[in-house]
Amino acid sequence: MVSKIGFVVNPIAGMGGKVGLKGTDGVFQQAIKLGAKPVAINKANETIKEFISSNSKKDEIMWYTCEGEMGSDILIKAGIKNIEIIYSTSKDETSSDDTKNACMKFLEKSVDLILFCGGDGTARDVFEIVKTKIPILGIPSGVKMHSGVFGITTIASGKMLNEFVNGRLSIGDAEIMDLDEEKYRKGEWNIRLFGIAKSIVEPTYIQVGKSTFESISDDEIKYELYEHINDEIEKNNDYLFLFGSGGTIDFIASKIGLKNTLLGIDAIYNKKLIGSDLNEEGILDLLKKYSKVKLVLSPIGAQGFILGRGNLQLSPRVIKKIGLDNIIIISTPAKLASIPEIRVDTGDEVLDKLFAEKEFIMVVIGYRLSRVVKIQTL
Amino acid sequence: MNRNATSFLKEEYDELVKKSFDWKLRILESGSTPHSIVDGKKVIMLCSNNYLSLSNHPRLIKSSIEAADKFGAGSGSVRAIAGTMKLHIEVEKRLARFKRTEASLIYQTGFAANAGLIPQLVTKEDIIISDELNHGSIIDGVRLTKAARAVYKHRDMGELENVLKEADKKHKRILIITDGVFSMDGDIAPMDKIVKLANEYGAMSYVDDAHGEGVIGEDGRGIGAHFGIEGKIDVEMGTFSKAYGVVGGLIAGSQDLVNFALNKSRTWLLSGSHPPAVAGAQLAAIDVLETEPEHVKNLWDNTNYFKKELISMGFDTGDSETPITPVIVGESSKAKELSNKLFEEGIFALPIVFPMVARDKARIRTMMNAGLTRKDLDFTLDKFEKLGKQLDII
C-alpha cells in the first residue's frame, strides 16, 4: 500500500521555453533577463488538485516535501494536512543540488514514490539519487520532456498517482533522457539516454474467468519477449544480432546469459557476446565481417523513438547496411500503450523517407505475438 | 513429499471473494422470459441473449418434446461413433439452407466450435490475425495453436491490411478472425471489407457471429446476409444458445470446410452429441425464423426505440449498431451502483467494468428482447432516467 509520498518541485523548470532556451540548466539568470516567468508551481498545483479531488485514501497519506515553492506551499494550498518538511534551501535560486538533497531525504524516510515537478533535467537529478530503488513520477513542466517518467499532462499525472495509490497500476521501466545541454549550446543536438528508472505503468491484463482478469507482471511479459527473441536467434543461427538499449532488451540479454550494456549497443553471434557498448565505427567494422544482421530495438522515452534519440551510434550508414526488414522491434504492451506511435529520426532524409513510406511497423509484444503500430518520422 | 494437494481450491476461491471477483449466481425461478423471476424478484430481463424470446416459443417447446418422446433423452454417443441421429443431419441441412451456404456443422457449444476448429486451421508456419476485442473463446482457440499471432486495432481495416502485407511475406497460411457483433459495444465487424482483404492476400476469413445469428441480416440470417456476402466467408461460426433460444455451436461454409472440421475438431469428436430434445428445438428455431419474421422485426423496433430514447435523455450509448446497447456511465463503481439500483427497481441489467472495458467507459450492458412491450420499455426508460439523474450521469 502506498502511504508515503516524497514531493519536490523544481520551481524554475520550464522557464526557458518561452524565451527560446532549451532548458534552464546553468542559464537561469539569462532566462530571467529574457523575461521568463515561473510555470512549475502552477503545473504542480494542477496535479495535486486533480489527485486530491479524486482520491479517497488521501487522508491516509503522509507527504514528505521541501519548504516553500519547492513543495509545501503547493500542498498546504491544496488543503493537505499530513506534511513533513524534510528539506529547505536558504538560497534564493534553487539548483539541481536542492532536488538531489531532497531526494536523499526522501529515501531516508522510506517513501513509496517520489512525485516531482520539472523537466528532463529534474528527472535526471531525481534518478541520479533514487536509481531504481523506488518508482518516480513526473509532473510535466520542463522545456524538454523526452524521459518516460512524465504523465502526458499535469492532470494525467494526478490521475496516475490516484490509480497507483489505489493499487491499480504497477511498476515498470521508464527511460531517463536528456539533451546534452553543453553540446546543444555549441550547436550539436544530442539526446542521451541516462538510465532506466522505475515509474508507474498500466498493467497488462489477461482474462482468466468470464469477467475476471489478472494483471501480468512486466517481467512475465519480458520473459515472453525473451522466448521470442531466443527463437529468432536459434532460427537464424548464421545472423549477427545487434541489441539496442533499454530495460526490456537488457532483460532478454540477461536471460540468454549475456552481460549486456543497458544503455549501449551490443553484438551477439551464436548467443555469445562479441562486442559491447559499440560506437558507430565498431558496428560498421562488424558489419564488414557479418553480412547477415538483425537489429533488435525497443522504443525509448516518452515519444517512442526507436532511432535518433539515445542511440546515435546507430547511424544512417549502419541502418542502411542492416536493412529495414532486419529490424525487430519489441515492446511490452504497457510501454506501447504509453507512447503515441513509433518514431524515427535518423537524420538522413532518404532513410527517414523509407521509414515514412512503410507507414506502419510490426512490434512484437509477446511470444510470437505482434501488432502494427503507426510510424512517424520528423 | 508431504503436501496439501487441494488447499489451493479454497485459498484461490477466498482470494476471489476478497476481491469481489467471484460470481454470485443469480437464480432464475421462471423461464428466461422478457419478465423473469430472478432471486425471487420479478424483473424485466435486459441481460439474457434470448433476443427473440424463442426459448419459450410454443413451436420450439413442442418440437423438443416430440423429439424426446420419439428418440429418447440422450443420443448415446459422440457424433463420430454412434451419436449422429437423422435429426442432427436434418438440422445441419436446414441451417445451411437458411444461411445460404453449402454446408453446416453443429458443435456441442459455441466455445467447442472455436476451441475445436481454430487450432486445426493453422500450423506453426502460419499466422492468425485477430481483432483486439475478440471474445474469450476465440482467444482460447488461438492459444491452442502454435501459429504466430498479430493483433489489429478494433475494426481498423488500415491496420489489418498492413498486418496482411507483413504476414504475406513470412507465412504460409493466414487466418483472419473476428467477432461479428462485438459483445461489449454492440458494433459490427466490417465483414465485407475483411473478406475483400482476405481474398486479396489469400487469407482465410473466420467470423464468430454469436451475437449476430438470428439478429442481423435478412430474417436474422447473420452477418453474411447483413453484408450480402453469404457463402463468401470461409468460416461463419455461430451459436444456437442466443437468439435461436436453444444451445449449441455451429459453423457454416463449404462442404470442404465441414468435411475437414468434423474429422479434425477434437471438441466435436470427443464430446457427446446433442440430445434429441435439443436438436428438435434447433430445428423448430430455424422453422420459426423462416416463417415468422415478426420476431426479428420486433427486436429491431424495440432496439431502435430504446436507443433513441436513451440518447435523447443524454445517455452515451457508444458505437452500438445492434440490440446490444451499452449505457456508458464512466467509473466502474458508478456502473455497479446503477446496476444494483436498477435491480431494486425491477430491471435486470449487468454492469461491465474495467478491465473488460476502459477505466472511464464502465457501463450497463443492455440486451433487447423482442418480447418486451412498449409499456415495458417506457417503464425501463423511466427508471434509467430517474437513476441517471440521481447518479449524476445525465
Summarize the structure.
The complex is a heterodimer of chains A (378) and B (394). Chain A is an alpha/beta fold and 378 residues long.
Topology of helices and strands:
The complex is a heterodimer of chains A (378) and B (394).
Chain A: E1 4-9, H1 28-33, H2 40-54, E2 62-66, H3 72-77, E3 83-87, H4 96-108, E4 113-118, H5 120-130, E5 136-140, H6 154-165, E6 170-179, H7 181-185, E7 191-201, E8 204-207, E9 213-216, H8 218-235, E10 240-243, H9 247-256, E11 266-269, E12 272-275, H10 280-289, E13 293-297, E14 305-307, H11 316-322, E15 327-330, H12 333-338, E16 342-344, H13 349-358, E17 360-366, E18 369-377
Parallel strand pairs in A: 1-2, 1-4, 2-3, 4-5, 10-13, 13-15, 14-16, 15-17, 16-18
Antiparallel strand pairs in A: 6-7, 8-9, 10-11, 11-12, 17-18
Chain B: H1 7-18, E1 35-38, E2 41-45, H2 58-71, H3 79-83, H4 86-99, E3 103-107, H5 110-121, E4 127-131, H6 136-143, E5 148-152, H7 157-170, E6 174-179, H8 191-201, E7 204-208, H9 223-226, E8 235-239, E9 249-253, H10 255-264, H11 266-270, H12 276-291, H13 294-313, E10 324-330, H14 332-344, E11 347-348, E12 350-352, E13 362-367, H15 374-390
Parallel strand pairs in B: 2-11, 4-5, 4-6, 6-7, 7-8
Antiparallel strand pairs in B: 1-2, 3-9, 8-9, 10-13, 12-13
Helix pairs in contact in B: 2-12, 4-12, 5-6, 7-8, 13-15
Biggest pleated sheet of chain B: 7 strands, mixed
Contiguous low-pLDDT stretches of chain B (5 residues minimum) are none
Overall mean confidence score, pLDDT of chain A: 88
Count of separate DSSP helical elements of chain A: 13
Structural class of chain B: alpha/beta
Give the count of structural domains of chain B: 2
CATH superfamily caption of the largest domain in chain B: Type I PLP-dependent aspartate aminotransferase-like (Major domain)
Q: Strand-residue fraction of chain A?
A: 25-35%
Order of helices and strands of chain B: HEEHHHEHEHEHEHEHEEHHHHEHEEEH
> Which stretches of chain A are poorly predicted, pLDDT < 50 over at least 5 residues?
none
The proportion of residues in beta strands of chain B is: 15-25%
Percentage of helical residues of chain A? 25-40%
The average pLDDT of chain B is: 95
CATH class of the largest domain in chain B: Alpha Beta
For the secondary structure, the number of strands of chain A is: 18
- Physical arrangement of strands within the biggest beta sheet of chain A: 12-11-10-13-15-17-18-16-14
- Number of structural units classed as domains of chain A: 2
CA(first)-CA(last) distance of chain B:
61 Å
CATH hierarchy: architecture of the largest domain in chain B? 3-Layer(aba) Sandwich
Major sheet attributes of chain A? 9 strands, mixed
- What's the end-to-end separation of chain A, in Å? 42 Å
